Amino acid sequence: MTRVLIRVNGELSVELQKAFPQLAVQAHHEQSTLTGEVPDQEALQGVLHALRADDIDVIEVVTIPD
Predict the structure, then answer these.
(1) Do the Cβ atoms of 8 and 34 come closer than 8 Å?
(2) Measured between alpha carbons, how far apart are the two ends of the chain, in Å?
(3) Where are the domains of the chain?
(4) Res. 53: pLDDT tops 90
(5) Which CATH fold would you assign to the domain 2-63?
(6) Which residues of 13-31 are buried (b: 16+ CB within 10 A; e: fewer)?
(7) pTM for the full model?
(8) Which contiguous run of DSSP H or E holds residue 10?
(9) Contact 6, 40 (CB under 8 A)
(10) How far apart are CA 64 and CA 4, in angstroms?
Protein backbone atom coordinates (compact mmCIF):
# COMPACT_ATOMS: atom_id res chain seq x y z
CA MET A 1 0.00 0.00 0.00
CA THR A 2 1.13 3.52 -0.77
CA ARG A 3 -0.11 6.57 1.11
CA VAL A 4 -0.90 9.49 -1.21
CA LEU A 5 -2.16 13.06 -1.16
CA ILE A 6 -3.97 14.29 -4.26
CA ARG A 7 -4.71 18.02 -4.53
CA VAL A 8 -7.39 19.15 -6.99
CA ASN A 9 -9.13 22.37 -7.99
CA GLY A 10 -12.69 22.73 -6.76
CA GLU A 11 -14.87 20.62 -4.51
CA LEU A 12 -15.83 17.03 -5.18
CA SER A 13 -19.46 16.01 -5.47
CA VAL A 14 -20.82 13.60 -2.86
CA GLU A 15 -21.11 10.94 -5.57
CA LEU A 16 -17.46 11.31 -6.52
CA GLN A 17 -16.36 11.22 -2.88
CA LYS A 18 -18.29 7.96 -2.44
CA ALA A 19 -16.36 6.51 -5.38
CA PHE A 20 -13.18 6.67 -3.27
CA PRO A 21 -14.07 5.24 0.16
CA GLN A 22 -10.39 4.62 0.93
CA LEU A 23 -9.58 8.34 0.58
CA ALA A 24 -10.44 11.10 3.05
CA VAL A 25 -11.61 14.27 1.29
CA GLN A 26 -11.13 17.74 2.72
CA ALA A 27 -12.22 20.99 1.05
CA HIS A 28 -9.95 24.02 1.40
CA HIS A 29 -11.44 27.16 -0.17
CA GLU A 30 -11.19 26.55 -3.92
CA GLN A 31 -9.24 23.30 -3.65
CA SER A 32 -9.75 19.85 -2.18
CA THR A 33 -7.35 17.18 -1.00
CA LEU A 34 -7.79 13.43 -1.06
CA THR A 35 -5.58 11.52 1.35
CA GLY A 36 -5.31 7.81 1.94
CA GLU A 37 -3.84 4.53 0.82
CA VAL A 38 -3.93 3.01 -2.64
CA PRO A 39 -2.85 -0.60 -3.16
CA ASP A 40 -0.82 0.00 -6.33
CA GLN A 41 -0.15 2.28 -9.30
CA GLU A 42 -3.11 0.85 -11.21
CA ALA A 43 -5.48 1.90 -8.41
CA LEU A 44 -3.92 5.37 -8.28
CA GLN A 45 -4.32 5.74 -12.04
CA GLY A 46 -7.97 4.70 -11.68
CA VAL A 47 -8.57 7.48 -9.15
CA LEU A 48 -6.83 10.05 -11.36
CA HIS A 49 -8.78 8.89 -14.41
CA ALA A 50 -12.11 9.19 -12.56
CA LEU A 51 -11.23 12.72 -11.41
CA ARG A 52 -10.28 13.81 -14.92
CA ALA A 53 -13.40 12.16 -16.37
CA ASP A 54 -15.44 14.41 -14.04
CA ASP A 55 -13.50 17.48 -15.30
CA ILE A 56 -11.62 17.83 -12.00
CA ASP A 57 -8.18 19.42 -12.49
CA VAL A 58 -5.49 17.51 -10.62
CA ILE A 59 -2.89 19.93 -9.27
CA GLU A 60 -0.47 17.50 -7.63
CA VAL A 61 -0.02 13.94 -6.48
CA VAL A 62 2.38 13.34 -3.59
CA THR A 63 3.52 10.07 -2.03
CA ILE A 64 3.51 10.38 1.76
CA PRO A 65 6.40 8.48 3.36
CA ASP A 66 5.65 6.06 6.19
Answers:
(1) yes
(2) 10
(3) 2-63
(4) yes
(5) Alpha-Beta Plaits (3.30.70)
(6) eeebeeebeebebeeeeee
(7) 0.92
(8) none
(9) no
(10) 5
